[in-house]
Amino acid sequence: MQNPSDPAGQLDLSLDLNLGIELQDDLEGDTLREECGVFGIFGHPEAAAITALGLHALQHRGQEAAGIVSFDGSRFHSERRLGLVGDTFSRREVIERLPGIVAVGHVRYSTTGATILRNVQPLFAELNAGGFAVGHNGNLTNGLTLRRELVKNGAMMQSTTDTEVILHLVAQSKRSRFIDRFIEALRAIEGAYSLVSLTNKKLVGARDPLGIRPLVLGDLDGCPILTSETCALDMIGAKYVRDVEPGEIVVFDEEGAHSHKPFPPKPPRPCIFEYIYFSRPDSIVGGRSVYEVRKAFGAQLARESHVEVDVVVPVPDSGVPAAVGYSQYSGVPFELGIIRNHYVGRTFIQPTQSVRELGVRMKHSANRAAIEGKRIILIDDSLVRGTTSKKIVRMMRDAGAREVHFRLASPPILYPDYYGIDLPDRGGLLAATHTLEEMRDIIGADSLAFLSIDGLYRAMGEPGRDPANPKFSDHCFTGAYPTHLTDQTQVEPQPRQLSLLAEAS
User: Is 380 flagged in the annotation as binding?
Assistant: First the structure.
């Protein structure tokens, strides 16, 4: 057995991990990766326990790591771990190490920075005015540029996540009041963010000026809550108060609630993928039921591209609401033709060729009784690389389906994302590199169709997409990015220090 400190041993380990990640990417080729989820509560005697429950409800937004920071009136306490929320925060002894009446929490899926413990949020730093913890959902499009400037000016970075940039900007501000330092930091960043942060006196939430990332305000027995989705409020029995407005900063302290709006108002551009994929179906986002919106996507898909079939089959679990809507509109029976195994994860998948061939079947299995001898229409929410879709179509044919038609409840993904969604560059996006007929042939379906961009907007209650004033951040379909992409325009390559830090951790 090699010594873990031996460079050769580290190399073998990294190769094994890379193989595992490569296989996972292959199995999840048509799946968008979650962003992150944030939660904060002020004034509750069981703040950490409530935060842990809230993070459980947000687990779908990130399964790689979770963390909670609390403040007991004199000291900050932090627990950050890789893995699921329940792996750590279901244990009483862990919650007991997080005393205090105020806490913030975060579930992470890494879009910037490797999945290593030093990147797990909330991040914490001691400032001259006291402790400061911050959790971030989103991605800064000038984070790397700001990082270079901060390091050049003497900052010592301890992580590879863009969230640390916010810590340093607040720390370096010369303003006397914390809120002014916080605002000054936000003025320097661009991109998408919803933040929950904690000082020794305040719980602070902030949302980017376009409202790309969601943030809602709730109330539990008079205690204010900030969180990414309303489903976290439902989990703990809290009531929904309102959405934090785009560009708004909300502050809670012993004197009450305060709202600051330091940015010029802009037409909101919330992320359309919150409705397509990210949010839980039982959440309310921007005043809309996610479940009802996804059903409307399916109904619109049936209007646009229906063919004669015997059953409608969702690709679980992401395609279920759209398939319900498709079935209800078209009158074609809904059947669970694919059964998902929820207990298969990366741990059980070994990177061997024989298991690669069985990969999808470990996660999805055909319900032969529902599909044999029938013409079926498969409904999924989106298509990225096409690898899983190809295997599912083949699985349906192997189970006896007479015809297999594939429908996607969103438009073709043509452009990468820079706001917190883990999508490949254009070369890795099937729709960006192939025609519709080529994609149909690759997947092996009898027909293939996507929801149109105007149909997407109509399902959202709009007359269609107005190119001059789009109501949502839909850049993955249209290339119309709502903010500057400073890091993407820089000719300077990514500094080697970032990757070295990840490898050494």
Answer: yes
Give the dihedral of Cα atoms 365, 371, 375, 379; nearest 10 deg. Answer: -40
In DSSP terms, 215 is beta-bridged to none
Q: Please tell me whether 318 is known to bind a ligand.
A: yes
Q: State the Cα–Cα distance between residues 396 and 376, nearest whole angstrom.
A: 9
Residue 195 is encoded by which pair of tokens? Answer: 């933040």
Rounded to a whole number, what is the largest CA-CA distance in the chain? 73
Helix ranges restricted to H, 189-255: 230-236
Our CA dihedral for 358, 359, 360, 361, rounded to 10 degrees, sits at: 40
Element (H, E) at 387: helix 387-398
How far apart are the C-alpha atoms of 410 and 354, rounded to whole Å?
Answer: 33
In angstroms, rounded to a whole number, what is the distance separating the alpha carbons of residues 240 and 451? Answer: 32
Rg, the chain, Cα only: 23
Distance, CA of 103 to CA of 203 (rounded, Å): 8
Q: How far is CA 407 from CA 280, 303, 442, in A?
A: 21, 12, 15
Q: Which residues of 9-24 are buried (b: 16+ CB within 10 A; e: fewer)?
A: eeeeeeeeeeeeeebb
Catalytic positions, please? Answer: 36
At residue 376, what are phi and psi to the nearest 5 degrees? -120, 155
pLDDT tens digits, one per residue of 359-386: 556 678 999 999 999 999 999 999 999 9
What is the pLDDT confidence band of residue 16, given thresholds at 50, 70 and 90? very low
CA distance 360 to 339: 11
Which whole-number Å values give the CA distances from 58 to 35, 235, 261, 420, 463, in the listed order?
A: 11, 10, 27, 16, 32
Taking the CB of residue 236, how many other CB atoms lie within 10 A of it? 21
State yes or no: 381 annotated in a binding site: yes
Contact 461, 300 (CB under 8 A): no
Residue 57 bridge partners (DSSP):
none
CB-based contacts of 366, cutoff 8 Å, min separation 6: 337, 338, 339, 395, 396, 398, 399
Distance CA 381, CA 362 (A): 21
| Domains identified in the chain and CATH numbers | 33-268 (3.60.20.10), 291-342+352-477 (3.40.50.2020)
Q: What is the pLDDT of residue 456?
A: 98
| Region for 256 from its dihedrals, namely left if φ exceeds 0, alpha if ψ lies in -120 to 50, beta otherwise | left
CA dihedral of residues 396, 399, 404, 406 (deg, nearest 10): -20
Residue 55, phi then psi, degrees to nearest 5? -65, -35
- Written as one string, the DSSP assignment of 100-136 is SSEEEEEEE--SSS-S-GGGPSSEEEEETTEEEEEEE
Q: Residue 419 and residue 213: Cα distance in Å, rounded?
A: 9
* pTM given for the model: 0.88
